[in-house]
Every structure is written in structure tokens, then in C-alpha cells.
Model the fold of this input.
Amino acid sequence: MRARRSRPVVVALLAVLSLALSGCAGAGTLGLPEGARIVTIAIVSNPQMEDAIELSPRFEAENPDIKLRFVSLSENEARAKITASVATGGDEFDAVMISNYETPQWARNGWLVDLDPLMAQTPGYDQDDFTPSIRNALSGPDGHMYSVPFYGESAFLMYRKDLFAQAGLTMPANPTWEQVAGFADRLTDREQNRAGICLRGKPGWGEVMAPLGAMINSFGGRWYDEQWNAQLTSPEVRRAANFYVDLVRRSGQAGAAGSGFSECGTQFSQGNTAMWFDATVAAGLLENPEESRVVGDVGYAPAPTGVDGLPSGWLYSWALAIPRTTAEKGPEQVDATWRFLSWMTSKPYQRMVGEELGWTSVPPGARKSTYEIPEYVEASQAYGPQTQAAINAADQDRPTRDPVPYTGLQFVGIPEFQDLGTRVSQQISAAIAGQQSVDEALEQAQNYAETVGESYQQQGADS
Done:
């Protein structure tokens, strides 16, 4: 396995170069064969995506008529810039990294290229190999796929087995949130700079609202009732939000209001926290000996439950799509773009990552066949089965106890949620920072949600 300690620097340089080139008319065509295509990809700067950038020269060597440009962005920045570009018909990106939140909505709007015909004409691509829940989540109203998954995830609880043993604690097979809070309190050691648990607190609908939204579901809460009446000040939501904020303030990491997925990953992998509730995709980082100090010491438990055994898992996939503006550039541009997307989401790519960068780095969850590769099965034995079980159990059509008019486990599947979720997250983050009470945060959040709900009530009245 090749050493990768310098990867962040390499990826950063690649990102800067990509941005510089994309701002220059005609740049990047020098030295390319006549008729060659430049494909610009907006991508999220998570570790698995950085791996794809690192391995992309392999694709260019196999496809000398294509030059790739990556615009690598943080999660919050990627969501904002990609949405703005696609929604306004911008043509700066030939491919975009989106999720199961955007895909069905954008397909309905006609903003994306139907990928079913492209998959059908690609030998060995095997779209039936995609994890069914992920495949369904990335399909449009017509049942066709409009993005293809790079990886899929749910959520689980990661914990330090060695610290539990030292404290005489045993993780239950199916922990509750009350039990998790008790463990966190016991394992917090401020003198040793160790938190009992790491929970996201960074503003963003895809940051703090992911675990908090899932916890709200597990406490029986919901964003709206069936008539689109906002429910963010309901007893269930109040209980969940107060529980979350109290737990992270009492036993969570320092600087929690600025901690997202990446920051919690660093804290846990460096041994600074005893537990971490977050995305299943994090396991690959924690079990990578070149990235983590806790390899072999981590246990993986199902997402904790709230009232009546309600789970707090979620369903999410970072996927790749082709905006309709790429099709307007001609079929040759679509073909060049799809050749890269199909390479990055293929079965051979999974094996290449394992052989070149280590089996714990293989993007999880997207394909069933990944869990049939002997080397991957061995490398992921501590977390692979739990990841599959969590993804397969997730049902974004039935997110919580009571009926709702929307889909989504850690999001509300409506266009307004990007803004609504972000606004609510800012209020929650402020409560975590101690700038206001949780009840004050929820009162303001309720006001935001009511404005959105009223528009849907009016639509119902008009119809």
C-alpha cells in the first residue's frame, strides 16, 4: 500500500489548479489531441473524493482524449455553489456531486440528464448491483436514475472498546440515547482532554441537522404534520433538541459549535473522544492506520434509539450527476462526462482503491458487490455488516413515528429545506455555543418553518 501522508497537500494543490484553470478561457487545451474534451467536475472535499482525484490520472491515461478538472469544495460550499449553478442553468460544471436530497427534486425539474440510457450502453456497469435503498433514493419520479452513487451511508455509534473495558462498561447490542448519555458522562475526562462523545454542532443543514434531525425522529418528533403545520416547538422536538444540546455541552468536544463531520473525525481518530455518533462512512477513516490512532480499538453499535425503540439512523448518498447544460454542449460532452462518472462509480474502481490505497479506503455502501470482495470483507469485518444493515434498514419514506407529508430521514425533501435547514441549524449552533437557550432557538426555528409550511398549505388549498 502506497504511503498517503502528503495527500492533503497534493489534493489542495490540485483543487487550486483546477479553480485557476476553470477561470481561464481556453486554458487546459494545450497538448490535448484535436477534438479532446475537458470535463469539469464539482466535487465535495471528503477523503474518499480526494482519493478519486488522486487516482484520476489513471483515467486520463486510459482516456487521452479527456482532460479532467476538479473543483473541490467543502460540503456547505459545494451544496451552495452547485445548487446555484444548476438551478440557474450555469454551464461551468459538466458533472456535479449531489445527494439523494437534490436528485429527485432536480430530476422532477428537468435539471439533470437521465442516466438510465447511458448505464444501459455501458458494458459491465451493472446498475442492478447498486444497493436497492440507495438506488431508489437516487431515482426520479419516472423510476430512472438521475445520479449514480459514489458511496452510501447511514449512521451508527462508534465507541472506544478499550475505554469501555477500562471503565467496566458494556455497550448494549441496541443502545438507547439515555444509555449513551450515561456512558458519555462516565467517560468524559477533561484533565485528559477527552470528551465523552463527539456530536456535530457546526451550522449547516447537512452538518448539525443530520444527527439532530435523526435524533428528533427517534424521539417521535417531526418537522411538519400531515397538513404542513410546523412542529418544531412540539414536546417531542423540544425534548430531542434539549437532550442533544445538553449532552454535547456537558460531555461533548471542545468547540462543539464549530465541529462538523471532519472535525469530529479528527477528534475521534486522534483519541480525544470516547464515542462518536455519525455517518457509517467514517469507519474507513478510523480503521486506516495511516490516518487514525485508534485502529482496532473501535466498536460499532447501531444508531441509538429514542422513544418506543425508534431508530436514529439516516440514509444518504454522495452521487454524481450530469446537469442538462452539459447535454446542451452536445452528445460528445455528455459521452466524455459519463465515461468519467461510470469509471468513478464502477466495480473496477472499488478494487483499484483497495489495491492502491488500502481496503479501508474503498467507498462503502453504494454497491452490493463491494461486500463480496474477500479483501474488503476481511478489512471491514468490524463495521461492514453494520454498515449494510443500517443502510438496508433506512426508510426515508417513513422517517418518524407519526405520518408526515415529506420524505427524508435527516432532511425534509422539499426545495426550501436548504434555506430552512440552514437557518434552523444556525439557531441550534448558537444554543450549543451558549448564546441562547434551546427553547429560544426552537421558537425562532418554528417561525421559519411556519413560513415554509404556509406556502404548502396554500398550494393544497389552490389545488
